[in-house]
Design goal:
This protein is α/β, with parallel strands linked by helices and 457 residues long. It has helices spanning 28-37, 42-45, 58-70, 76-85, 87-92, 100-109, 114-127, 155-177, 190-240, 311-319, 340-348, 366-370, 382-390, 393-400, 406-416, 427-449, and strands spanning 133-144, 152-154, 261-263, 270-273, 279-290, 296-302, 326-333, 352-355. The longest helix has 51 residues, at 190-240.
Length: 457
């Protein structure tokens, strides 16, 4: 006869249950609660007036959001439900159940304050002797915006659609004039139909103006690059007395292109090429990862589809880090960041750059991997010098850590934590949420690194 344990769901607890007994001592939820308890949340608390119904404490709501993002729960409704269903969520919320509207409002209200919490987490890592800045690896990744690419409207399509809507408005007005003589189709409400088309026209006019504004911004950037290239060619011709080889750069066009688009759901997001092919409505999330600890030490979001202009904004963030964290000495980035201007910006900031000049062959022979680089030609330019530095043994060793430093962090954030799309719309809100994601990753990583606080699962 089998010997089974008795199933008893009816007997009440002899003593009140304690969640302290239900959660392992080394659980991530405990680590996050203890970390948040050590933070200065005066910027949060000062924004509560103290009137009306007593509010949930920012300390609890912040810890709840961080743990949710660290474990792949981003919906405020799912977080609310988890405070009923999940022991770690119950532990963090102290057995209370803030509703989804409270959670969503808290996240949206304090997006700017997450920047300070991000820095406080880094300072905590330094106090725990888990972080000492030195070499950082920089990269970017496309994160889907909270908008569909099918909600985008192209400049070339606007005029076609405007003509169609204007023709329909004329038809509606004609129907209205003859309504007394000719009965209207059942269910047709002319004022509503007219209003809908007029609103659509206004939306298209605003979209067209936005595309034209962006075209002027692009023209200003391209014109500056064009002038710089033309000046370089002129200087070369004056110094050598010979006409430069190759075609002269083409002057930029200030007019909008037919394929230029604006998204009607999130106008600040952009169409970007995705890694798997095709195009998606996205933002470009940037991160600088410390090579020793794998902690994200700087993070922001940009609308630019490529990374060419992102070194200087990243340098500004790295230089503004608190002094106790140490000083960045080396910056490693792939070929997407390469330009003479970016290399010069790193050197001006007293940071030694290791930025790939171009894509290197994936497989190199033994002799090629260990061969000394050819001597630099006389009068070598900035890019030639960088290429030579990366072919030295020291340069190869430093650059080799990039793929196993910053790329795994993005991979874990997107595939393990599951963050692949922003919840809120607009560049500022996307950047605030990206900082929340990165500080959640940092605490998750710190819990793994700290010997007495290793996450149990």
């Amino acid at each position: 006869m089998s010997n089974f344990r008795t199933i008893d769901r009816q007997t009440p607890y002899l003593f009140p249950p304690s969640m302290e007994d239900w959660l392992a001592e080394d659980h991530l939820a405990r680590f996050i609660v203890e970390a948040v308890e050590r933070m200065d949340l005066s910027a949060f608390c000062s924004q509560y007036a103290g009137r009306g119904t007593r509010a949930y404490h920012p300390e609890m709501l912040l810890a709840l959001l961080i743990y949710a993002y660290a474990t792949g729960v981003f919906s405020s409704r799912r977080i609310e439900q988890a405070t009923y269903d999940s022991v770690p969520f119950r532990y963090i919320s102290a057995n209370t159940h803030p509703d989804h509207d409270t959670l969503a409002t808290f996240r949206r209200r304090f997006l700017n304050e997450f920047a300070d919490i991000f820095l406080q987490v880094l300072e905590l890592a330094q106090q725990m002797r888990l972080l000492k800045l030195g070499q950082v690896c920089v990269d970017g990744s496309k994160i889907h915006a909270n908008a569909s690419k099918h909600s985008a409207l192209s400049y070339g399509h606007i005029d076609t659609q405007r003509a169609r809507l204007q023709e329909e408005i004329k038809q509606i007005m004609a129907l209205a004039e003859g309504a007394d003589q000719t009965p209207l189709p059942e269910g047709l409400k002319l004022p509503e139909e007219l209003k809908r088309r007029q609103e659509r026209l206004a939306t298209m006019d605003a979209a067209k103006a936005e595309i034209e504004r962006r075209a002027q911004e692009r023209y200003a950037r391209e014109k500056a690059d064009y002038d710089a290239k033309m000046k370089q060619r002129q200087d070369q011709e004056q110094s050598t007395g010979k006409k430069p080889r190759g075609k002269a750069p083409k002057a930029p066009d200030p007019t909008p292109r037919a394929e230029d688009q604006v998204n009607l759901t999130d106008s600040e997001s952009r169409i970007m090429k995705s890694a798997g092919g095709g195009f998606e409505q996205s933002y470009n999330a940037q991160a600088a990862v410390d090579q020793e600890s794998y902690l994200v030490v700087a993070a922001y979001v940009t609308q630019a589809a490529n990374d060419k202009q992102q070194i200087e904004p990243m340098l500004e963030q790295l230089q503004s880090l608190p002094e106790p964290l140490g000083r960045v000495t080396h910056l490693v980035a792939d070929a997407g960041y390469c330009s003479a201007t970016n290399i010069a910006a790193c050197e001006t900031a007293s940071i030694e750059p290791y930025i790939a000049v171009g894509k290197e062959a994936k497989t190199l022979g033994v002799l090629e991997r260990f061969a000394a680089p050819e001597a630099l030609p006389e009068g070598a330019n900035t890019l030639q010098k960088m290429q030579h530095k990366l072919k030295t043994q020291a340069g190869r060793a430093l650059y080799a850590v990039r793929k196993c430093t910053v790329e795994p962090v993005f991979g874990i954030i997107k595939s393990v934590m599951g963050f692949r799309q922003f919840s809120m719309r607009g560049l500022e809100k996307a950047e605030g949420e990206w900082r929340l994601v990165c500080l959640a990753w940092n605490l998750k990583r710190m819990a793994k690194m700290h010997p007495s606080c290793v996450q149990s699962g």
